[in-house]
Specification:
This protein has 394 residues and is α+β, with helices and mostly antiparallel strands. 43% of the residues lie in helices and 17% in strands. The radius of gyration is 22 Å and the shape is globular. The N and C termini lie far apart (58 Å). Belongs to the sigma-70 factor family. ECF subfamily.
């Protein structure tokens, strides 16, 4: 039997405390099993499976404080996943009696996520001032309960109670989105499915790095946005990430939620910092943008022009980059991205190499080489005059 193996109380407690790195570890281990389960019950409909997978991890994240107290985590995770599968099939039944097979393709889940995020956003900005400040210090600044209490002169119990109260409010608004109350038919369907999968489990899928944005979106669903945070938190957050993030907040207010921009000043060669502390240098006229689900566990970026990146913390996590309407994955610690020339170029810098993935092709790029995705959308490795290419960064 293929077990999910997440009875590690220490890790589950880290998730309950809001530690995103622990949730990513949890996601990497559990999602291949859940994906395989959903492929069975949803008749190999990959689009439907990805919808249900996204919903599953949103619910697991929103109810994260319950995880350490669950006696059978494996059964619980399967049950949550099958409930989401049932709801998806229930919703689509009038239009599509049986799920149909879709060709494998990049997928951006949109099931209830935007509704969740909009309602949760309203909950957060309507909180009493102190409770809102505590929650923002916890979720925006990543502060531990003890540190928040020390900063505000409150007991650990008071801080914990405030965070728990917000989580309850968030979960209530999610419940209000439910299309119908749980029925006996749903309970029977889910229970029968869990029993069948535990007795005859499918072989777990191989973890796909392209699934990581699902975990990132799950964690972002209840994360306050810097532009809407309390004045004290906004001041600390902007100072912590440098003055360009104050500009990002202004753009957020003018253009709406979900987009942040880092814009390089003319003739400046000073490194800026992304939210995960990755250093970035932008050539003149270049921009780097990211959605509000960018985090130290999901580096999703859009590059226009030329930008140089240097990871300073997690050097193993890939960057998911959109450049010239192309989607690519770069695994590297120090590299340059060049667009706007008709090709997209990835150039490793220093003595480090990089791995570049585009479409179904993955290639290693060593120092002195560059990966080029041509206008014909093919990935090639060619020699690179790194000194000439990087002459702008002095």
């Amino acid at each position: 039997m293929h077990e999910i193996h997440y009875s590690d109380i220490t890790l589950l407690q880290r998730i309950a405390d809001g530690e995103e790195a622990a949730f990513i570890q949890f996601f990497r281990t559990t999602s291949p099993v859940i994906y395989a389960d959903l492929m069975i019950v949803m008749q190999q409909d990959k689009a439907a499976v990805m919808e249900a997978l996204q919903e599953t991890y949103v619910k697991l994240w929103l109810y994260r404080d319950k995880l350490p107290h669950i006696k059978q985590p494996d059964t619980h995770i399967r049950t949550v996943a099958l409930k989401e599968a049932y709801l998806y099939l229930y919703e689509t039944a009038p239009r599509e009696p049986l799920p149909v097979h879709h060709e494998d393709e990049d997928f951006i889940p949109r099931h209830h996520y935007q509704e969740y995020q909009a309602l949760i956003h309203e909950v957060i900005i309507s909180l009493p001032p102190q409770r809102r400040l505590i929650y923002e210090m916890h979720r925006l600044q990543g502060m531990k309960i003890a540190d928040i209490g020390k900063s505000l002169g409150l007991s650990d119990d008071a801080v914990h109670s405030a965070i728990h109260a917000v989580q309850q409010s968030v979960r209530q608004c999610v419940r209000e989105l439910a299309i119908h109350d749980e029925s006996s038919a749903q309970h029977q369907w889910v229970a029968a499915g869990v029993k069948e999968l535990e007795e005859h489990p499918p072989v777990p899928a191989v973890f796909n790095e392209r699934w990581l944005p699902l975990a990132s979106r799950a964690m972002a669903v209840d994360r306050p946005t810097p532009a809407d945070s309390s004045p004290v938190v906004r001041k600390v957050y902007s100072r912590r990430l440098n003055t360009w993030y104050a500009l990002a907040a202004l753009i957020f207010l003018l253009l709406g939620p979900g987009i942040y921009l880092l814009i390089m000043r003319a003739n400046s060669r000073r490194a800026e910092l992304l939210p995960d502390q990755t250093k970035v240098w932008l050539n003149e006229g270049a921009t780097v943008s990211w959605d509000d689900d960018f985090s130290a566990t999901a580096r999703n970026l859009t590059v226009e022009g030329e930008a140089c990146f240097q990871a300073t913390k997690d050097t193993t996590l890939p960057f998911y980059i959109e450049a010239d309407s192309l989607q690519l994955i770069v695994q590297g610690t120090y590299f340059d991205v060049r667009t706007g020339t008709g090709n997209v170029q990835i150039i490793p810098l220093g003595h480090s190499g990089a791995t570049v993935s585009y479409d179904s092709t993955t290639k290693a790029v060593t120092a002195g080489q560059q990966a080029i995705i041509s206008s014909r959308k093919t990935l090639q490795i060619e020699p690179a005059d790194v000194k000439e290419i990087m002459s702008w960064k002095k």
